Amino acid sequence: MINRFIKIFNCSKSKEWNKNHIHFWKEYIDLNNEGFSSFQNELFGEIKKVLNDYNISFVGEVTEHQDLNDKNRVVKMITLILDDNSKFWIYHDMAEFDLRNEHEIYEKWGYLKPQNLMDRYLESMKKFLKLDNNEL
User: Fold this and answer.
1) Residue 90 main-chain phi, psi, to 5 deg
2) Concatenated DSSP letters for 40-71?
3) Residue 62 and residue 35 in contact, taking contact as beta carbons nearer than 8 Å
4) In DSSP terms, which residues pair with 107 in a beta bridge?
5) How far apart are CA 47 and CA 64, in angstroms?
6) Which 3 state secondary structure label does DSSP give 91?
7) Beta 74-83 vs 86-90: how paired, if at all?
8) 25, 50, 71, 133: most buried by Cβ count inside 10 Å?
9) Given 3-state DSSP classes, what are the helix, strand and coil percentages for the chain, each rounded to the nearest 5?
10) pLDDT at residue 131 above 50?
11) What is the pLDDT of residues 47-103, one digit of tens each?
């Protein structure tokens, strides 16, 4: 009987998390008139700031892709390239990177709020680039 109550509690807790997640992410993943989300613009700005603060040069490019959930919608992806072994990708609702042969993916459903994802992404980015010790 106790297991049944735990399952009911966990289910309602999960539903509440999903409801909150959708609420927190909604405005961040809506596309603006230029086709970018707030999530992309904010994370792009943070990455650029870190790279500029450490005088790390990069090349940026924007590509367009068909949305996987809506074939009639085009979404943009921002790519920042440091070198052949270091690249960042910022999608309208997620991000990933290859840094010195380490690949990590950060999907929105792993984080309650967009800021949580961005904080974790930037933390990992700095770790792999060894920026905490000012080493490159």
Assistant:
1) -125, 110
2) HHHHHHHHHHHHHHTT---EEEEEEEE-SS-T
3) no
4) 94
5) 20
6) coil
7) antiparallel
8) 25
9) 45, 25, 25
10) yes
11) 999 999 999 999 999 999 887 777 888 889 999 999 988 999 999 999 999 998 899
**Single-letter residue type at 5:** F
CA-to-CA dists, residue 115 to 1, 52, 91, angstroms = 39, 21, 15
Residue type, 83: D
Residue with tokens 């892709």: 65
Strands (DSSP E) found in the chain: 59-66, 74-83, 86-90, 94-99, 102-107
pTM: 0.84
Residues 114, 24 contacting (CB under 8 angstroms): yes
Question: From residue 44, how far is each of 30, 38, 39, 62, 94 by CA, in Å?
Answer: 16, 10, 8, 12, 12
Contact 82/58 with Cβ under 8 angstroms? yes
In whole angstroms, give the CA distance from residue 86 to residue 83.
Answer: 5
